[in-house]
Design brief:
Number of domains: 1
Largest sheet: none
Protein name: Protein kinase domain-containing protein
Number of helices: 4
Shape: extended
Organism: Scleroderma citrinum Foug A
Length: about 55
């Protein structure tokens, strides 16, 4: 995903998760299936592993 598109989809997901009415709020299942999470999953996993590897003990 391009940076601008990534920003838009991430912002959209966060907004959906911050809705105070639980009936209208995105569920965990919906969040995990969001385009932002799914499209960059491999890149996110790689970044996570690198971050964990470089964290001080």
């Amino acid at each position: 995903m391009r940076a601008l598109e990534t920003l838009f989809t991430a912002k959209n997901l966060v907004c959906q998760l911050l809705i105070s009415d639980p009936r209208k709020r995105a569920t965990v299942y919906e969040a995990l299936r969001s385009r932002w999470i799914c499209s960059d999953l491999e890149e996110l996993e790689r970044a996570y592993r690198e971050r964990i590897r470089t964290m001080p003990s």
